[in-house]
Design a protein that fits this description.
It is a single chain. By secondary structure, this protein is of the alpha/beta class. It contains 11 helices and 12 strands. The chain has an 8-stranded parallel beta barrel with strand order 1-4-5-6-7-10-11-12, surrounded by 7 helices. Strand 7 and strand 8 form a beta hairpin. Helix 9 packs across helix 11. The relative contact order is 0.15. The model has no long low-confidence stretch (mean pLDDT 93).
Amino acid sequence: MATVRVIPRLDIKGPNLVKGIHLEGLRVMGDPAEFAVRYYQQGADELLYMDIVASLYGRNNLTAVVERTARDIFVPLTVGGGVRSIDDIRTLLRVGADKVAINTAAIRNPQFISEAARTFGSQCIVLSIEAKRTPNGWEAYTDNGREKTGVDAVTWAERGMELGAGEILVTSVDQEGTSKGFDLPLVTAISKRVRIPVIACGGCGTPEHAAQAVADGKADAVAVATVLHYGRHTIRDVKAAVRARGLDVRGA
């Protein structure tokens, strides 16, 4: 298994870092750039920026935030929310993003994944899946977990890989913001079906939750927010828990 990555997730609304529960009920946390620098200094392997109101405006509004962050930190940046065209991707990469996460546009037009991967390389394209439990598994949602698609999340992950996505970001809407732990069956189901890295997101409340997602859920990386934003733990704490499971992780 490759080195496990710990990736702070920063949800952005306007100029602010926000945090919700089940992707709703947002609380303003502060200046995203300040949090980004703090996490970089703590040893973040990457950073994930999500414009969570992009669907309301039909475009990603993070170019200024990304540009400012890219000047101050030197780890890969993934940016998502409202990425709907090749031009959107090109703009984000130009201002400092290393990867883009796509969800709604990919569901509406799966060939967008292939076109993006051909244009920029699979390593730049992350398929973002927002999943909610159903009686038979999990359904993929769009628009920050608000819109049903009727698409099976696990099947969609496999198809996204086949179409050229380089990574899968799977967010459990049910667990997101609850601090009760990742949806391990969801993470496991997707990890078993794809041959590309899986980033588990949604529910991390303790460093041990992150270790479980990797050791038991077979994720390649964890995206974490609440556990860091409220100062309950640091990235070093998370990495120590992962290392305690005998897994390879960067830094202290």
